[in-house]
Amino acid sequence: MKTSKIAYFDCFSGISGDMVLSALVDAGADLRAIEGELRKLKPQEWAISAEKVKKRGIWATHVRVATGEAHHHRGLSVILRMIDEAEFSTRVAERAKKIFTRLGEAEATVHQMPLEEVHFHEVGAMDAIIDIVGAAIGFELLGLDEFACSALDVGGGQVKTAHGLLPVPAPATAELLRGAPTYSSGVLRELVTPTGAAIATTLSTRYAEIPPMTLRAIGYGAGTADLAEKANILRLLVGETAASERGENWGSPVTVIETNVDDMSPQIYGYFAERALAAGALDVFSTAAQMKKNRPGLLITILCELQDVARLIDLLFRETTTIGVRTYEVRRKTLERESVPVETEFGPVHVKLSRMNGSVLNVTPEYEDCQKIATERGVPLKRVIAAAAFEFQRRNEKPE
Questions:
Q1: Helix, strand, or coil here: 358?
Q2: C-beta atoms surrounding 123 within 10 Å
């Protein structure tokens, strides 16, 4: 029977980027392997170490990152380029970039500025980058496919930032926590940081009690502060869930957002669809609809994860002419998917595979790879796509 590995963020004392990385190491992700991958990042003037610490009677791992840089501001585009240039595995890069993009969107919303103009302060420093990218590497080392999260204790009081004293949760953190269950236990300290909120809410597909799983590992990640009220740790539960049939995957519920419009330019829809996908939508599509008074219109449909619902509804209201939306939950059944590289006469291309019961059903060359090669080499796009498909088939032909 096929199994899927799931991680549960138990945020009874909040969550931060370094607590996530520490909990992963405590749960079995090899720190030296994480560091080896992190060394692909530039610059490399940093050191990473781990030690066991005791927090209110609980032993936990605390990963420390020491950097030589002064306070450093980096734009979102700079950080995304750093990740791309490091050439991590596809899933590591995608998860890290998705987390940073979500951070950027929160900052853009709070400061009312375009996403491309966002410059990070604390989360743009190298230690924060290492926390997030290191966590993405740790997730991959443990083979994690799904994520769930408890309600988050955000703490209280005020926190000192580059913008001065701010209420807890800080504005960007609060924006990231839209749609997630939160509470305060009364601890007058920032317990949920922007990096922790971004990791938990970007990856988690459900917020509830511990999901059904066969528990395989437990990790305790320590925060820096010692709290008088309770242990300042994140507990990470890692387990396996069984799929009903081999090769099939019933995913967690996703949300459908729908709206009908009949007074909007098609140009606006195209722009909106691009923005929605960039904002985390799993899919965006339109269907012809017959509206009142026999007017032709569009049914706009968005599929998204729970934590992205509020942001995408806001985007619908801002970018389209709709005056109302509806939502409901659905389940998706998907094939196993994998991305593999092939060498063509024009250069390397990734090919997306989908399988059922171990058999490959679909082979699709990655469009972005093919488009880049076609543009750089001055050859027709269709030739690059055909070459990639041919090379995959040739490499996988069984000898008679």
A1: coil
A2: 23
